[in-house]
Amino acid sequence: MNDFESQLRALKPQVLPPALQQRLAVPPASAPPNLIRFRWLAWAGAAAALILALAHAFRPAATIPPAVTVSATSRESTVTSVIPVSVLTDAANRRWRLVEVNWVEEDTVVSSSRPIALQLQQDHRAIIPVAIQYD
Q1: pLDDT computed for residue 123 by the predictor
Q2: Measured distance CA(123)–CA(120) in Å, rounded
Q3: First to last CA, the chain
Q4: Which distant-in-sequence residues (6+ apart) come within 8 Å of 42 by Cβ?
Q5: Residue 23: which residues within 8 A CB-CB, separation 6 or more?
Q6: Is the full-model pTM beyond 0.70?
């Protein structure tokens, strides 16, 4: 044993002064409930901010696709059907045949930067008067 330990063992317990006894008898003051709630919210907010910062730091970089340039376009119109509807006579005694014409317009666009071809088809229908006889 060293000298300091022997001196500590030689000390006898004593009675605490009354002022110190009063201070030790009072329970320690606890934080008000609002402060505790604020601490939890502050920790949760800090954790959320850290998660967002990490997600932002490790996200993949945005890639910009190259511009698509069009090298060739074509348009074709194909009549699919011609159906006679009726025959009319106008005030000048001219005869007209009304014909329903159906056709398809097909547009084709070809890209030069990528091997892509785009085809768009549109169906059309019209009633067309055709002159039959003039006096």
Answers
A1: 92
A2: 10
A3: 143
A4: none
A5: none
A6: no
